[in-house]
Input
Amino acid sequence: MKLIKFVVILIVLFSTQLLAKEKIEVEDGHYGEAFWDGNTFVQRCVDASKLDENKISAFVDGEWQEFELINLPEMFMSWDIKERFGTLEGIAKGEMPKLEGPHNAIVATYGYRREDSRFRVNNAIKGCGFLPKREKIKEINQMLAETDTLHFMKKLEILTGMYEKADSLFDLNKQISLELYANPKRGTQTFLNQMTDPTSVLVFMAIPTFKLKTIAYLLHPENPDLNDYEKDVIKYINSIHSYFHGEFSQEFIAVIYNVIEVYNSSPGNKNGRGTLIVP
Output
């Protein structure tokens, strides 16, 4: 009986904690100027304080909710890594990379009606990839810095080597991207939606194809309150982007897509057609 009372108290305390968090109210119909504090911002609709425990809280559907991150399943990883190997091999032979596949995720978001639209829903293609594990990220950042001036073909070999060690190197419950174009005067529709409701759904133009339901966590490089890990994340995502595409004059906003649910959306397959496969 005492155990039951203790569990009930814990549940009440946890629920009260979520309710005590700030209710997010957003006045839309503009370009998101209110999200910014000078040249930086904090994504108020996400609490990532338990991210090291694979938990994230977010303001979704008008209330604070806690979500548990899950690892991408073997089915997804096998497809993703195989496709990336093929792309790198093709580039080494002088071929243009394909638009379809795991790199270019189609990201659906909802939440903010921008001044130039009557709709809150949006879809955009974003370059995505993997994030190194916490205990590996500093080492990888250093390696990228030390090898950045090598010949492009050598860098392709290094990238291939990273994917060969995907299971041990990468944090398999996350995908990453950059927000290249949002600024204090004009937010992209994806950015505005994710600042309002971080729910983001990623799909890929491929067969097999998968759908990832995620919570997007946005990090601005100039936020003075970033913790050490968040600084490493920003450095990595910008570095791996520059490693392939060439140097840029600024650091861009980093986006972590924290994976909550994974679906097999492959057509013509009874185990696909939008079937939940994890959790």
About this structure: Residues 2-20 form the longest helix (19 residues). Residues 7-13 have pLDDT under 50 and may be disordered. Residues 120 and 260 are 22 Å apart (CA to CA). The helical segments are 2-20, 74-92, 134-147, 152-164, 166-169, 189-196, 228-245.
